């Protein structure tokens, strides 16, 4: 029982329940429906299904009207999308929901989860042996509870075979846009992004948040001067001896304190801040070689290796994804 079908539609079921985040459901739905608006006919047949077929009250208090109960879906699916939300714990305890998600996954070409929907998919046994992600605030919890999965906390979304998982809330739209790109190519994905006034599109490996915000330190910390200097001038001299000198610490003590405080090394922090700065410059349309110099990489090849290591795509590819949509948005 799926609605909005045409002969070319791919069947997609979105799993909702009481306490699901509204945007975890309607965000991906709008992206997939947007593809149909651009093409002029539905390319995805979307169905919102709940455990009992009744409407679900979202975490925002608004109700999501269901098309059917999960058990009523008796056809093969192209994609099953499991929403997250504050109600994920109750959903995990719902034997009917978990059983139906497991059943429908076997009838689906691929399975996706948004935010804490990963907990539901994990409880159904769908994520075992896979690399996955979820909202950054829940990554530790997910990793602790499900030892058979490999959680990658600093990712917008992760694709591992037929399993696609995303970070929180708006990241579900990035995930859905990646599905459009996979199914129908770059050009349609760009048009959908432009229609929805989205970036085209954040690579899955992109950090969920600013590197500076990811490693906050108090104003009284001896590391504060070094971190502020790195963020203020990514291209400056940030070798270990220079950073330790700014903090009046020995290199050994600085390195140990940095790791204890931030959970990463000075070198990795500098690299990620430089990648973050380079992203902004690339989005502004500057040549790759110019960006490499201004962001402190020294050479385009060094920057390319850092981009591949940090976000999974090279600078030229990143600029093509963002530059195209930015230029189109200005010219249209």
Structural account:
Residues 1-5 and 324-332 have low confidence and may be disordered. With 332 residues, the chain is an alpha/beta fold. The chain has helices at 22-39, 88-92, 95-106, 117-123, 139-145, 171-184, 186-195, 211-214, 224-232, 240-246, 251-262, 266-283, 288-294, 300-310, 315-331, and strands at 10-15, 44-50, 56-57, 63-64, 68-69, 77-82, 108-114, 131-132, 150-151, 157-160, 163-166. It has 15 helices and eleven strands. Strands 5-2-1-6-7-11-10 form a seven-stranded mixed sheet, with helices on both faces. Helix 10 (240-246) packs across helix 11. The relative contact order is 0.09. The longest helix is centred in the first third of the chain and has 18 residues, at 22-39. It has two domains: 10-195, 3-Layer(aba) Sandwich (Rossmann fold); 211-331, Homeodomain-like (Arc Repressor Mutant, subunit A). Helices cover 48% and strands 13% of the residues.
- Quote the CATH topology of the largest domain: Rossmann fold
Strand content: 5-15%
Distance between the termini: 40 Å
Largest sheet: 7 strands, mixed
Low-confidence spans = 1-5, 324-332
CATH H-tier superfamily of the largest domain: Class I glutamine amidotransferase (GATase) domain
**Structural class designation:** alpha/beta
Using only C-alpha atoms, the radius of gyration works out to 22 Å
Mean pLDDT: 88
- Give the topology string: H per helix, E per strand: EHEEEEEHHEHEHEEEHHHHHHHHHH
Strands, total number: 11
Q: What general form does the structure show?
A: globular
Number of domains: 2
Q: How are the strands of the biggest sheet laid out side by side?
A: 5-2-1-6-7-11-10
Give the number of helices. Answer: 15
* CATH 2nd-level architecture of the largest domain: 3-Layer(aba) Sandwich
The CATH class designation of the largest domain is Alpha Beta
The helix fraction, in percent, is: 40-55%
């Amino acid at each position: 029982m799926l609605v909005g079908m045409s002969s070319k539609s791919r069947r997609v079921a979105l799993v909702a329940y009481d306490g699901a985040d509204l945007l975890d459901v309607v965000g991906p739905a709008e992206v997939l429906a947007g593809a149909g608006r651009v093409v002029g006919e539905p390319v995805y047949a979307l169905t919102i299904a709940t455990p009992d077929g009744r409407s679900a009250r979202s975490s925002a208090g608004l109700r999501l009207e269901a098309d059917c109960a999960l058990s009523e879906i008796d056809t093969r699916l192209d994609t099953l999308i499991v929403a997250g939300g504050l109600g994920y714990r109750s959903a995990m305890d719902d034997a009917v929901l978990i059983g139906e998600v497991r059943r429908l996954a076997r009838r689906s070409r691929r399975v996706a989860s948004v935010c804490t929907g990963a907990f539901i998919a994990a409880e159904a046994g769908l994520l075992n042996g896979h690399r996955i992600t979820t909202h950054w605030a829940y990554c530790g919890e997910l990793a602790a509870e499900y030892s058979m999965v490999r959680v990658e906390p600093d990712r917008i979304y992760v694709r591992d075979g037929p399993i696609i998982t995303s970070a929180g809330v708006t990241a579900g739209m990035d995930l859905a846009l990646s599905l459009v790109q996979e199914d129908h190519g770059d050009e349609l994905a760009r048009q959908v992004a432009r229609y929805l006034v989205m970036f085209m599109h954040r690579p899955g490996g992109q950090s969920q948040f600013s590197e500076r915000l990811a490693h906050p330190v108090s104003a009284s910390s001896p590391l504060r001067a070094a971190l502020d200097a790195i963020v203020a001038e990514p291209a400056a001299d940030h070798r270990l001896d220079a950073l330790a000198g700014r903090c009046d610490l020995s290199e050994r003590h600085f390195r140990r304190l940095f790791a204890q405080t931030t959970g990463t090394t000075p070198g990795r922090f500098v690299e990620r801040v430089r990648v973050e700065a380079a992203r902004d410059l690339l989005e502004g349309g500057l040549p790759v070689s110019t960006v490499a110099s201004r962001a402190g990489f020294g050479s385009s090849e060094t920057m390319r290796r850092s981009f591949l290591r940090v976000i999974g795509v090279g600078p030229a590819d990143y600029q093509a994804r963002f530059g195209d949509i930015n230029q189109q948005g200005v010219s249209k």
